From TrEMBL:
Membrane topology term: Multi-pass membrane protein
SUPFAM superfamilies attached to this UniProt entry: MFS general substrate transporter (SSF103473)
Annotated Major facilitator superfamily (MFS) profile domain residues: 14-393
Cleaved signal peptide residues: none
Compartments reported by the entry: Cell membrane
Highest classification ranks of the organism: Bacteria, Bacillati, Bacillota, Bacilli, Bacillales
Residues annotated as transmembrane: 12-36, 48-68, 80-97, 109-130, 137-161, 167-188, 209-227, 247-265, 277-295, 301-327, 339-360, 366-386
Protein name: Hypothetical membrane protein
Length: 405
């Protein structure tokens, strides 16, 4: 834990607020899960409406992220974080008092917009505060906050629901968010020299071979993660007669492994080639994914889920610090725009993953679908790495030619 002793007071405060903000965002995201049966029984929504409810978060995030990231580069991180937290508080209160599916969907949509403001801005704040050599580790810590919020949201929501009513989880979360708003307003300070950044040329940034590689890796990892959510519960219920509690435990094991490995991978990315780490992580994911199809007991399923969670955490953690390093090379300081692109690919994965999982499992058994997904990850991962290597070789050849000329 020597990294904490190297931090300044401003860096510690900034990291603490980023952890709190990302934690509360994902806590709110998963808080709804145990309360879904209540709304299903009370409102009698169709399957399509339930699908709209859960997809509205990612759709809103996709729409709003390209807007908020660049704005945070111009307005400053503190202001954008306050706007995002206010949006989270408003969406949570709307959840508490929603009596129709229309209001629930609106609340989920507002939550996605708020996440589009907080996610890239929080990551950009870390990039502002920490030098490149420390960035990988602190980004890994930020991912751990995300996984912890995801892990605790459902059980906390279920417990508060059981001891009170369906409004209590949302009211408690709203109160926590308001406290967070007050703390950010009072104690989060920004370096005034870093609140104004040069405009990032997004077109050129997206065409950067390194960014293309990172985007592809993020998409593969997020799609793989999100397609498991709608497919595995039915698969394990039919194959191993698992209860909903046991299935929740399995996803908790995966999330825990993700959160534990993320800081390790982030730290390694500061000392090793981060692109090789990402490639190694995605290849490991491809190898371990079929283990789910072959699991014949609860313990085998838990081991497979832990390995998959660790693989995804190992894959994604180096992407954040590396994106910041690419911005550093350009000298723009437009971290908000860069991390808004990360958030967009994350959102695309959240939409495409369940869709891909649904289509595949409609056509094939889940075990066959998992094997196809694993083979696809393997193929596309290798293709991305070859493309990255080829682009570096081409760039080196051009530089050598210019030197000879």
């Amino acid at each position: 834990m020597s990294i904490f002793t190297q931090m300044t007071k401003q860096q510690r405060i900034g990291l603490l607020f980023v952890i709190l903000i990302l934690f509360i965002d994902m806590l709110l995201y998963s808080l709804l899960i145990p309360i879904v049966p209540y709304f299903t029984e009370k409102l009698q929504p169709s399957s399509t409406m339930m699908g709209v409810l859960f997809s509205s978060y990612a759709i809103a995030m996709l729409i709003a992220t390209p807007i908020f990231g660049p704005i945070s580069d111009r307005m400053g991180r503190r202001t954008m974080l306050l706007i995002g937290l206010l949006g989270l508080a408003a969406s949570t209160l709307l959840f508490a008092f929603s009596e129709t599916m229309g209001l629930l969907i609106t609340a989920r949509f507002v939550q996605g917009i708020a996440a589009a403001a907080t996610w890239p801005t929080a990551l950009a704040l870390l990039a502002d505060l920490f030098p490149s050599k420390m960035r990988g580790t602190v980004m890994g810590i930020a991912l751990t906050a995300i996984s912890t919020g995801t892990l605790l949201g459902a059980p906390i929501g279920g417990w508060l629901f059981e001891i009170s009513d369906h409004r209590m989880p949302f009211l408690a979360a709203a109160a926590f968010t308001v406290i967070n708003i007050v703390l950010v307003y009072l104690f989060l300070k920004e370096d005034a020299t870093k609140t104004v950044s040069e405009k990032l040329h997004v077109g050129g940034f997206i065409r950067n071979p390194q960014v293309i590689f990172i985007a592809g890796i993020v998409l593969l990892a997020e799609i793989s993660l999100c397609l498991l959510e709608p497919t595995l519960p039915v698969f394990f219920t039919e194959k191993l007669s698992m209860t909903p509690t046991t299935i929740g435990l399995l996803f908790g094991v995966m999330t825990l492994a993700y959160g534990m490995i993320a800081p390790v991978a982030g730290s390694l990315s500061g000392r090793m080639n981060p692109y090789k780490l990402m490639f190694g992580g995605i290849m490991t994911l491809a190898v371990f994914l079929p283990f789910l199809a072959w699991a014949d007991s609860l313990w085998q399923a838990m081991l497979a889920m832990a390995l998959i969670g660790a693989s995804i955490g190992f894959t994604l953690s180096p992407t954040l610090g590396t994106l910041g390093a690419i911005i550093d090379q350009g000298g723009s300081g437009a971290y908000g725009t860069a991390y808004s692109l990360f958030n967009m690919f994350h959102g695309i994965g959240m939409v495409a993953g369940p869709l891909a999982g649904g289509i595949l499992t409609d056509l094939l058994p889940v075990s066959s679908a998992l094997l196809i997904v694993a083979a696809s990850i393997l193929g596309f991962g290798i293709l991305l790495f070859v493309q990255l290597k080829a682009s570096k070789s081409t760039s080196l050849s051009i530089k050598e030619s210019e030197m000879k000329f």
